[in-house]
Design brief:
The complex is a heterotrimer.
Chain A (H helix, E strand, L loop, with lengths): L1 H28 L4 H6 L5 H10 L6 H13 L13 H36 L4 H15 L2 H15 L11 H31 L2 H8 L4 H31 L1 H6 L5 H10 L3 H29 L1 H7 L7 H9 L1
Chain B lengths: L1 H27 L1 H18 L1 H5 L30 H37 L1 H16 L2 H12 L3 H28 L2 H8 L4 H37 L11 H8 L7 H29 L6
Helix pairs in contact in B: 1-11, 2-4, 2-11, 4-5, 4-7, 4-9, 4-11, 5-7, 6-7, 7-9, 8-9, 9-10, 9-11, 10-11
Chain C lengths: L3 E13 L4 E13 L3 E5 L6 H9 L7 E10 L2 E2 L5 H7 L4 E4 L3 H4 L6 H12 L4 H14 L16 H13 L5 E5 L7 H18 L2 E6 L2 H7 L2 E6 L2 E7 H6 L4 H8 L49 E4 L2 E3 L6
Parallel strand pairs in C: 3-8, 3-9, 6-7, 7-8
Antiparallel strand pairs in C: 1-2, 1-4, 4-5, 9-10, 10-12, 11-12
Helix pairs in contact in C: 4-5, 4-6, 5-6, 6-7
The chains are: A mainly alpha, B mainly alpha, C alpha/beta.
Chain lengths: 324, 294, 320
């Protein structure tokens, strides 16, 4: 198992270097110079030149890139142009808010998506199934920001039940979590339904029924345990997607999270902040996916036995491939 | 020669009946048909906006600001007194233009990458797929935002940004179907006849990997429409005065309390368009290959 | 005839969809006496598995629907039982071995759990005791009990089928429905599995319905034979009746398509044509289109099953 985890972490390294390269070169080649933003219009040409030398901005692209990577490994992502604070600090103060929002949303959407998906699969083509599928289809089609605005219009403007912006009390969290989570709930529902339908059709379900097992156990234990494996992947991916995609929701509800910080930084041409933020989010997303992969290996005995038990290892991959 | 002709005939007959099967299955899929009809409606809007609502989507009429929906302006007017319906119809052109071009770009590039990676395997596969991993690792919204922020907002940059963020999806899907096809016996057979790799890929591998790619095209268009409107919403999308659903919505956001209709109608248009392409994608998937799952 | 453990009367099962009605089983009747084995023989698609699922009341509904008939098990009609009562019969009184051991086991549960599951459902044992019993059952079918904690993918096909057998016999059922238990296995393993079933059957005095398309297996294991074709039983009798006095043209055809090492025939005689589409069965005799003796009168009217000698039933115009 450790070998598996170790290999996955090693695979992360080139990907992260690539992410830095993409983001770094984008900021490098974008019009506008750092010194103009930092020093302002009043600065003289000499001041600007001195600033460039001091920050290594006069060096060739690759040297700058490697310097950036070297510093990033130590946790130094540079200094924010507009607040003059370390980028890492800015990120870490905002990140808990974004994490909380994403976590809250993923919990809500998993509960919604799983239960509706399972019921839909068990009662395939029923009225309930059709309604759920229709809502899920609308859910994946609705733009996040519009959903946010519509919720706001209904619950804050028309009904006055919930506050429109901020993040102080639990009431503040309801609309943002729903806004961010509806798309995910819909994806999870669709995935759950199709995987459950697939699982219910399998022979081992018939075997379980032939044993005289109760239908509830057949569905919730035998079918769901098999269907759960791909569903876990989707839930994990959705969590990553929420961490990286929360910016628009944060903007709509004026939540001072990492996503909003990034958009603000882009508008201010705050390159170190943008680079650092995107890098950080890409890293958290990758770590989320890594955890999902490990979890996946733990739930699926066919994969687990490849890594845990050395005995019988030769038969396992072939059998797993056949049954997959 | 005559024998060759007859095989060719047989193959074309087979194709025809396969296509017939596909049409029959698709016709039975109510969702897919509804999606297709909505898409046709939007396509008509995008192709003939001038004939439908007239050329004038830009001139301001400040005396007629915020006209709530009425007989003259069915969907009302916006903050500059422009007719919302007119701008929405023209907005269909903007949205479809960008999303279709973006998906065309990413589909072509992604398919090429996926085919090469899947067909050759080994180191080539590894390198190409790690590059795709990099693109996948950056949250797509953020990737789009950063690209537009770096290169400025124009239609071409938008197409590029949207295209880049969906290449990875295409390449993965294409690669996995190529891998399953690669080792089939008919590929061996083609190789035995001395066909070049290029010929094998284009003639034998690609046609058999087409079904999931077609489905992905429909789904990607839906995703692109969403992303474009999202970018426009945060002010990084299509520059004014080009009408675009996301930016119309964004402009209306400040006045949502009093003039909600400005926000509601463009939102419905976005949702309907995305909904239609998703429905079409689902329908195509069911019709092309009943065994294919999301 | 009084000690019949199972008596099926006029069982009819259809699969009904919007487009068509597939007539899978059409009015079949058969009996199995205590301790007896009946071989149900027929081609793929003849309705054999549907019959077995019908006995278990596990025909997937929708689209499957039991149109009519009685399934009398130990004097009681299973068709009249509630779902709750059926659950206590399944796996306990009547159990089933499925065709494909590769897919019949749940890949994410240990085999020990899967065997213990049926034991815990029907016997009042603690979890621990049920697990011990499961290990005993594994030993009984020739697998180390210590492997109870392993998952199905860690076993070979033959071993998986042994586990399925262990599962089916764990609660000493009175009736075993074995649906092509050896079809998915290698020939060498087939023999072992058949011997195992046969021995255990004798040991527990279990009656059996053996579904197969292999007349050789039937000769080895069964006492009686029912030949099934397009949802009907076309010939029914003891082994001697069927093998020595083969009467129905279809049964004769089946024997003609088995290689025989004793006679000097160089060529097998396969039955011409295909089984009729069960969604669109012909009038009259269902076998008429492929029958070498078919006459015009075969293609209309309803056939009757005729007893041509005591206990030997044939459904054919030639014998009416």
């Amino acid at each position: 198992m450790l070998k598996f985890i170790g290999r996955r972490i090693l695979m992360l390294i080139p990907v992260m270097l690539g992410v830095v390269l993409v983001v770094f070169s984008m900021m490098y080649f974008s019009p506008g110079n750092a010194e103009d933003y930092i020093l302002g219009d009043m600065a003289t040409a000499e001041d600007k030149e001195a600033f460039r030398v001091e920050n290594g901005l006069d060096k060739p692209f690759w040297i700058q890139y490697f310097n950036y990577v070297r510093k990033a490994l130590k946790g130094d992502l540079g200094i924010s142009y507009n607040t003059k604070k370390p980028v890492t600090e800015e990120i870490l103060t905002r990140f808990p808010t974004t994490f909380k929002l994403a976590f809250f949303s993923v919990v809500v959407s998993s509960i919604l998506g799983l239960t509706t998906g399972i019921i839909s699969a068990v009662k395939q083509y029923s009225l309930w199934d059709n309604i759920c599928r229709f809502i899920a289809m609308i859910g994946v089609s609705m733009p996040t920001f519009w959903l946010g605005l519509m919720l706001m219009l209904l619950f804050s403007v028309k009904l006055g039940w919930l506050p429109a912006a901020g993040f102080k009390t639990w009431k503040h969290w309801i609309m943002p979590a729903l806004t961010l989570g509806l798309h995910s709930a819909s994806s999870i529902m669709r995935m759950t339904r199709s995987n459950m339908l697939e699982a219910i059709r399998q022979d081992y379900i018939r075997t379980a029924r032939a044993k005289g097992q109760k239908e509830s156990v057949v569905i919730w234990r035998h079918a769901l345990k098999n269907a759960a494996i791909p569903i876990v992947t989707v839930v994990g991916m959705q969590f990553g997607r929420m961490l990286g995609g929360s910016s628009i929701t944060e903007m709509v509800f004026a939540i001072p999270g990492l996503g909003k910080l990034l958009i603000d930084s882009i508008n201010l041409k705050n390159a170190p902040q943008v680079q650092g933020g995107v890098l950080f989010l890409a890293l958290t997303m990758s770590v989320a996916n890594l955890i999902v992969d490990i979890l996946y290996a733990f739930i699926d005995p066919r994969i687990r036995s490849q890594y845990v038990k050395v005995k019988k290892a030769k038969a396992a991959p072939a059998a797993a491939a056949k049954e997959a | 020669m005559s024998k060759e002709m007859s095989t060719a005939d047989a193959i074309s007959m087979k194709k025809k009946s396969q296509f017939g099967d596909f049409v029959r299955r698709f016709k039975k899929n109510k969702g897919g048909i509804v999606g297709l009809l909505i898409i046709v409606m939007f396509l008509i809007c995008a192709l003939f906006p001038a004939q439908l609502v007239g050329e004038d989507y830009y001139s301001q009429d400040l005396s007629n600001r915020y006209c709530h929906p009425n007989a003259e302006h069915i969907f009302g007017t916006d903050e500059l007194g422009r007719d919302v319906l007119t701008r929405m119809v023209w907005g269909a052109r903007t949205s479809l233009e960008i999303s279709l071009s973006a998906v065309a770009v990413s589909c072509i590039l992604g398919t090429i990458v996926g085919c090469i990676a899947g067909f050759y395997g080994g180191v080539t596969d590894n390198i190409l797929m790690r590059i795709m991993d990099v693109l996948m690792a950056i949250p797509s919204t953020l990737l789009g935002i950063s690209i537009v922020a770096a290169f400025g907002s124009s239609i071409y940059v938008l197409i590029f940004a949207m295209g880049i963020s969906s290449i990875a999806g295409f390449s993965r899907i294409c690669r996995s179907s190529v891998i399953t096809i690669r080792d089939q016996e008919y590929i061996e057979a083609a190789r035995a006849t001395g066909a070049s790799d290029f010929r094998i890929i284009t003639k034998y591998v690609l046609p058999n990997a087409l079904a999931p790619i077609i489905v992905q095209i429909s789904m990607s268009i839906a995703a692109s429409i969403l992303s474009i409107s999202g970018l426009s919403f945060i002010g990084l999308g299509v520059p004014a005065p080009t009408p675009e659903w996301g930016s119309m919505l964004s402009n209306g956001r400040q006045v949502i309390r009093d003039h909600a209709y400005i926000v509601i109608f463009p939102g419905v248009a976005i949702m309907l368009a995305v909904f239609a392409f998703n429905l079409l994608g689902d329908g195509l998937r069911d019709a092309l290959d009943p065994r294919l799952k999301s | 005839m009084a000690n019949n453990i199972l008596e099926i009367k006029d069982l009819t099962i259809h699969y009904v969809t919007d487009q068509e009605t597939v007539k899978a089983v059409n009015g079949i009747s058969l009996q199995i006496a205590e301790g007896e084995s009946l071989g149900l023989v027929g081609e793929t698609g003849a309705g054999k598995t549907t019959t077995a699922l019908g006995i278990m009341r596990l025909v997937p509904d929708p689209p499957g629907r039991v149109i009519g008939g009685e399934i009398i098990y130990k004097g009681e009609d299973l068709m009249k039982k509630s779902e709750h009562e059926m659950r206590s019969i399944r796996g306990h009184q009547i159990s089933m071995i499925f065709q494909d051991p590769m897919t019949a086991l749940n890949p994410v549960e240990t085999v020990g759990y899967q065997i213990a599951e049926v034991i815990r459902l029907h016997q009042n044992l603690s979890k621990r005791d049920a697990e011990l019993k499961a290990m005993e059952m594994m030993e009984l079918v020739g697998i180390e009990g210590a492997r109870a904690g392993e998952y199905p993918h860690q076993f070979s096909g033959g071993m998986k089928q042994r586990i399925v057998i262990a599962m089916a016999l764990a609660c000493d059922p009175s009736l075993l429905l074995a649906d092509e238990p050896t079809t998915a296995l290698d020939v060498t393993i087939q023999e072992q599995v058949l011997d195992l079933i046969d021995n255990l059957k004798k040991q527990f005095n279990t009656s059996m319905l053996l579904i197969t398309h292999d007349l050789g297996i039937v000769a080895e294991v069964c006492d009686k034979v029912a030949i099934m074709y397009a949802g009907e039983i076309v010939e029914y009798g003891t082994l001697e009746h069927i093998y020595n006095n083969t009467s129905h043209p279809y049964t004769q055809g089946l024997f003609g398509s088995i290689p025989n090492f004793n006679s000097k025939t160089h060529r097998l005689k396969p039955i011409k044509g295909l089984m009729p589409d069960p969604a669109n069965l012909p009038d009259g005799c269902v076998f008429a289109d492929r029958c070498p003796h078919a006459k015009d009168e075969c293609r209309s009217g309803k056939l009757v099953t005729k007893e041509i000698e005591p206990g030997h039933l044939v459904r054919c115009r030639l014998f009416e």
